Amino acid sequence: RKEVEQDPGPFNVPEGATVAFNCTYSNSASQSFFWYRQDCRKEPKLLMSVYSSGNEDGRFTAQLNRASQYISLLIRDSKLSDSATYLCVVKGDYKLSFGAGTTVTVRA
Amino acid sequence: DAGITQSPRHKVTETGTPVTLRCHQTENHRYMYWYRQDPGHGLRLIHYSYGVKDTDKGEVSDGYSVSRSKTEDFLLTLESATSSQTSVYFCAISDYRDNTGELFFGEGSRLTVL
Predict the structure, then answer these.
(1) What is the pLDDT along chain A (108 residues), one digit of tens a residue?
(2) B45 and A94 in contact by Cβ < 8 A?
């Protein structure tokens, strides 16, 4: 079983829509959680950290559910520029584990 | 953007040939990493370095070696390339070993082994 699993998508949504997706992790001792964004054929970049109480950064909201071992990312009022692959990253035991990514395509 | 450059950015080689990828940083970060990215897989750690001449293996280190003789340079070597090593390779740097989760990545090196 992979340490971090994501629905690969793609999620095709119109501009202005809300899109949400989850990531599950297998190690219950995982300590920290992050979302990275990767544009097509580009390097990943940190989008946001995920805190226990949930957190927002503009149109992006991240949630953590330790009991069910998943994190989520919600994007409100989607923009064309939000089209990317979103990587779930989980830190545990001094190691970062990356999910394979969820692809979001926002159409005009 | 963090000052990380990878070279070459693209390379096509034949099975059995040696290949060296270079990662150069201007941020003076202590930690440097080499990852590979393949379809259907997350980024997988090959090797990492926590200082000059200090390196350790990641989860997919077989067939790869690394060297770090200077803070700014981290080299990844495939002694004898195989088709299974066709991949996109990313170098990354950080100030703290995974403490914050923020890694700064280079633009990637796309390697094709025929």
Answers:
(1) 788 999 999 999 999 999 999 999 998 888 889 999 999 999 999 999 998 889 999 999 999 999 999 999 999 999 999 999 999 999 876 678 899 999 999 999
(2) no
Residue identified by tokens 């997350």 is B42
Question: Residues A69, A15: contact at Cβ < 8 Å?
Answer: no
3-state secondary structure at position A82? helix
Within 8 A of B105 by CB-CB distance, chain A residues are: 43-45
Q: Which residues contact A66 (CB under 8 A, 6 or more apart)?
A: A28, A52
Alpha helices in B37-89 (DSSP H): none
Residue for token pair 């200090």: B54
Best mutation target, B96, B98, B104, B110, to test chain A (most A CBs within 10 A): B98
